[in-house]
């Protein structure tokens, strides 16, 4: 007897499974609220150098004070990082005149003045993470994703050793602790450390929620479970926009997105441990108790499988030997799959977070951009689950990535004055990017043989998080050339999409069980 047969005996997909999915969707909603929080806590409002002795210009308007104190850039706006060492009163007569001597232009000497009309407080305004310190501002997102990368290794091992539910509870508790410590940060160093640790904790939530749900549903409903979980990620995207719009102070915004984890901790009481994991670990009495509860809730009173029968089922399984990450690269075909899928996962994550963490470049305000980007993901997910069964996994994966890159590239050449067109192209690109992410989860799980599937998913997940960590740092390349970040995102997306054509098609193909099936 297989575990799928046991699930069928307990009623298949019933009220018990629905309860689990509803509860596990709560932490799933919370994930993007932290993963994309950088857009709001690290947002940099418009700013200029603080002007000393400004009260001495009492007879001048604010515009005139800026005119004589701050040099203009090539586009006519006032510089954010430079000021005149002495007031240039002659500019009052003709603002188009150039400064008499370029040597009088210097970096800001007395701090900065920020526009607080949209954002009351961010880490940029609190610790002046602008101009020369701008790299530290972008690095906060990288620190977070480095934490997520480390957490993938830690919680991947611990959840196999100590159980799914236990580690999910631990990761939620740690998220609350480190999230609240982040909100209470009194220095940038403290924030960087606590956000990294928050990333470690949230990685456990990200890794465990979906497998725990999948291990309680039958084969027929796994696709539905994956779609539902993915859709609630998009719901979290939209909720983040609403919460950030209502809470404009970064400390309280961190509290607002961390608080819901407490509700998840309470609700987790009603979620059982994975019966598959319990049987694999020989804990038959606990597994039987959970299966009996499942059958009763699904109104199957005829469930009569005993703990002894579960023991016989476990002992009937043949041991499969030990496999490690190096096994992914030992044979030619598997090596090609691993290298190509690694490139594809990097491109998917790099382009997704490159677009998701750049809300100011598309002509909409950051709150509307975040909300619209969340909305467009839902139809993209639904369409892809139809397309992958019609045109195949390989074509879907390749073209969604290539079209993502082309949309990013199109916005490089579209003038900034065409705000509506830029917004439409950006929204289309975000839809293609999410479609690529949706496809890659399904595609990768079908590429690797059963005995190496978990190792394959762990390896590609690590590469994806590496892409997520590097994506925010690429924004700093605009100091070399204004469009270089977009060119980089575009190139990586298109190239990784082209690499996807090298992977084998898995549509209507039986899942490989061993390495010899792949070779």
Structure report:
The protein is mainly α. It folds into three domains: 1-43 and 132-318, Up-down Bundle (Growth Hormone, Chain: A), CATH 1.20.1250; 47-114, no CATH class; 327-518, Growth Hormone, Chain: A (Up-down Bundle). The chain is built from 21 helices and four strands. It has helices at 3-9, 15-35, 38-41, 62-69, 123-127, 134-162, 164-183, 188-214, 222-246, 250-258, 260-267, 275-280, 284-297, 307-316, 332-356, 366-387, 393-413, 419-447, 453-474, 484-500, 515-518; strands spanning 47-49, 82-84, 105-107, 112-114. Helix 2 (15-35) packs antiparallel against helix 11, helix 13 packs across helix 14 (307-316) and helix 15 (332-356) packs antiparallel against helix 18 (419-447). The model has no long low-confidence stretch (mean pLDDT 86).
Per-chain topology:
Elements (H helix, E strand, L loop, with lengths): L2 H7 L5 H21 L2 H4 L5 E3 L12 H8 L12 E3 L20 E3 L4 E3 L8 H5 L6 H29 L1 H20 L4 H27 L7 H25 L3 H9 L1 H8 L7 H6 L3 H14 L9 H10 L15 H25 L9 H22 L5 H21 L5 H29 L5 H22 L9 H17 L14 H4 L1
Antiparallel strand pairs: 1-4, 2-3
Helix pairs in contact: 2-8, 2-9, 2-11, 6-7, 6-8, 6-19, 7-8, 7-10, 7-11, 9-16, 13-14, 15-17, 15-18, 15-19, 15-20, 16-18, 17-18, 17-20, 18-19
Q: What Rg do the Cα atoms give?
A: 26 Å
Low-confidence stretches: none
CATH topology of the largest domain: Growth Hormone, Chain: A
Task: Please indicate the percent range of residues in DSSP E strands (runs of 2 or more).
Answer: under 5%
Q: What kind of sheet is the major sheet?
A: 2 strands, antiparallel
Q: Which architecture of the largest domain does the CATH hierarchy give at level 2? A: Up-down Bundle
Q: What is the CATH first-level class name of the largest domain? A: Mainly Alpha
The shape, in one word, is elongated
Element-level helix/strand string: HHHEHEEEHHHHHHHHHHHHHHHHH
SS class: mainly alpha
Strand order of the largest sheet: 1-4
Number of separate structural domains: 3
Contiguous helical run count: 21
Kindly state the number of beta strands.
4
Instruction: Average the pLDDT over all residues and give the rounded result.
Output: 86
* Helical residues, percent: 55-70%
Distance between the termini: 29 Å
| CATH-assigned homologous superfamily of the largest domain | MFS general substrate transporter like domains
Main location: membrane
Subcellular location: Apical cell membrane; Basolateral cell membrane
GO molecular function: organic anion transmembrane transporter activity; prostaglandin transmembrane transporter activity
Catalytic activity: 3',5'-cyclic GMP(in) = 3',5'-cyclic GMP(out); 2-oxoglutarate(in) = 2-oxoglutarate(out); urate(out) = urate(in); GMP(in) = GMP(out)
């Amino acid at each position: 007897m297989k575990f799928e047969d046991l699930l069928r005996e307990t009623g298949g997909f019933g009220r018990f499974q629905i309860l689990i999915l509803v509860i596990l969707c709560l932490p799933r909603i919370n994930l993007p609220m932290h993963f994309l929080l950088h857009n709001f806590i690290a947002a940099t409002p418009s700013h200029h150098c603080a002007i000393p002795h400004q009260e001495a210009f009492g007879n001048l308007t604010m515009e005139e004070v800026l005119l004589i104190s701050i040099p203009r850039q090539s586009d006519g706006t006032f510089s954010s990082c430079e000021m005149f060492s002495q007031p240039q009163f002659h500019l009052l007569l003709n603002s188009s005149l150039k400064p008499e001597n370029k040597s009088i232009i210097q970096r800001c000497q007395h701090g900065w003045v920020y526009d607080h009309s949209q954002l009351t407080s961010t880490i940029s305004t609190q610790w002046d993470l602008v101009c020369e310190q701008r790299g530290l501002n972008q690095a906060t997102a990288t620190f977070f994703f480095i934490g997520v990368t480390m957490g993938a290794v830690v919680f991947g091992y611990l959840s196999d050793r100590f159980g799914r539910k236990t580690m999910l509870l631990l990761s939620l508790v740690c998220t609350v602790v480190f999230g609240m410590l982040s909100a209470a940060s009194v220095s940038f160093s403290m924030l960087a450390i606590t956000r990294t640790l928050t990333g470690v904790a949230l990685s456990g939530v990200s890794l465990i929620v979906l497998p725990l749900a999948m291990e309680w549903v039958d084969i027929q409903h796994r696709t539905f479970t994956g779609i539902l979980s993915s859709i609630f990620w998009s719901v979290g995207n939209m909720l983040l926009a609403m919460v950030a719009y209502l809470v404009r102070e970064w400390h309280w915004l961190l509290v607002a997105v961390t608080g819901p984890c407490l509700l998840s901790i309470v609700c987790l009481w009603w979620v059982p441990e994975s019966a598959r994991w319990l049987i694999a670990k020989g804990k038959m009495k606990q597994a039987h108790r959970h299966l009996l509860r499942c059958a009763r809730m699904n109104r199957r009173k005829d469930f009569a499988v005993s703990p002894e029968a579960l023991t016989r089922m476990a002992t009937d399984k043949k041991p499969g030997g030990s496999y490690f990450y190096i096994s992914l690269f030992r044979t030619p075909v598997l090596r090609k799959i691993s290298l190509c899928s690694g490139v594809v996962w990097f491109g998917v994550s790099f382009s997704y977070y490159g677009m998701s963490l750049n809300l100011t470049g598309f002509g909409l305000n950051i709150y509307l951009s975040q909300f619209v980007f969340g909305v467009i993901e839902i139809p993209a997910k639904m369409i892809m689950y139809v397309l992958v069964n019609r045109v195949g996994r390989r074509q879907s994966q390749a073209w969604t990535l290539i079209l993502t890159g082309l949309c990013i590239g199109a916005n490089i050449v579209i003038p900034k004055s065409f705000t509506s067109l830029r917004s439409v192209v950006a929204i289309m690109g975000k839809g293609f990017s999410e479609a690529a992410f949706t496809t890659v989860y399904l595609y990768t799980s079908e590429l690797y043989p059963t005995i190496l599937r978990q190792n394959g998913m762990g390896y590609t997940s690590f590469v994806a998080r590496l892409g997520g960590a590097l994506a925010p740092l690429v924004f700093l390349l605009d100091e070399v050339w204004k469009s270089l970040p977009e060119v980089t995102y575009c190139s990586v997306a298109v190239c990784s999409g082209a690499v996807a054509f090298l992977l084998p098609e898995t549509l209507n193909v039986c899942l490989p069980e061993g390495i010899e099936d792949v070779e």
